[in-house]
């Protein structure tokens, strides 16, 4: 674009837009500060929502929760950097007004290389303009990334639903689920490479073939909302600088997300992160001596759900039993459905129940089908003829079944409760916890 065209475009820009452009720093600071506060306060709520959704078989699987935590942390970091730089920018504006001549070299009396470096320092006005561009770039980049992430998540969910239309349960098989996740991650990675390099758009023959694919994915991944923003940034700023900034904040966002996942799913991790290098901390998934606080009603933190493994999310009334029976609650997790159908002989489980009598009969069948999956034991003693009842957990609100186990045959000391669930005809998965009898 020639200077005449630039001047003509400048003259066509309405005065109100020029005024908004000059005052854009105000909404930037308000949005950055408000977003940081919101993201820090919503992290725990989002984690609890994700955990509950996973418990009932919703679409927020752990991989989506993990990706969301990465995105949330990247946005936190980017907005924090933006807010800090805007603080520096504001300080320079005040100093440039108070000291319009800039640095007083004579008063500092530097010599040699220090003096040469001092002379190279930009004037306050130049530094202010440079910081203005950097802040605007980071602010726009952050919203571009947020929209990009939402688009990738929509692609992830849409793919699951699309396979479901053709009768393929992606999450029903570990191999299918892993392959699907890897496929989406590879597709997203190639999309980012293409976005940063544009190599498919620059090749004469490939670009014609790629164009219809690009248009479809541009809609599915919401690319129409952020691509022009990226092109505006990339055409005026070094792409290597943009990529480096993205890689650095993504690395820290990833490491922070691993910490978030350990808080949301404390019994699914145990891995090292950038912020936790301890070598000998016990991975709860493989440590039978790990005391899972979510398995005890008296120790579980407020807002946390009953936890377990193999779909057996359970809790007992206390880690120390002073008198009375042991109260065992098992939450009805969606994962149990996969075990119930092939092991239950009733043909009426999913049929409508018009009468009170048939409703009671079906309720008995439901209860028998669920409870027949479990084998309960303390130490080496197996409990038979357990009386189960449906209930809602009083503090978590989870639906499930409850029973009471007598303890008069056990001595004072530490004991192990074992809950085995039949995952197939000849296979059982087991969850355990310990408790003390006084």
Task: From the structure above, extract its key features.
438 residues, alpha+beta, 2 domains, 5-stranded antiparallel beta sheet, 5-stranded mixed beta sheet, 56% helix, elongated
Layout: helices, strands, pairs:
Elements: H1 3-12, H2 15-22, H3 25-55, H4 62-98, H5 105-108, H6 112-120, H7 124-165, H8 174-197, H9 199-202, H10 204-220, H11 223-234, H12 239-264, E1 307-309, E2 312-316, E3 320-321, E4 326-332, H13 337-343, H14 356-371, E5 374-378, E6 381-382, E7 389-392, E8 399-405, E9 413-422, E10 428-437
Helix pairs in contact: 3-4, 3-12, 4-7, 4-12, 7-11
Give an overview of the whole structure:
The structure is a single chain. By secondary structure, this protein is α+β, with helices and mostly antiparallel strands. It has two domains: 22-264, no CATH class; 293-437, no CATH class. The chain contains 14 helices and ten strands. The protein has helices spanning 3-12, 15-22, 25-55, 62-98, 105-108, 112-120, 124-165, 174-197, 199-202, 204-220, 223-234, 239-264, 337-343, 356-371, and strands at residues 307-309, 312-316, 320-321, 326-332, 374-378, 381-382, 389-392, 399-405, 413-422, 428-437. The strands form two sheets. It has a five-stranded antiparallel beta sheet, with no helix packed on it. A five-stranded mixed beta sheet has the order 3-10-9-5-6, with no helix packed on it. Strand 1 (307-309) and strand 2 (312-316) form a beta hairpin. Helix 3 crosses helix 12 (239-264), helix 4 packs across helix 12 and helix 7 packs antiparallel against helix 11. The longest helix has 42 residues, at 124-165. It starts with a helix and ends with a strand. The mean pLDDT is 78.
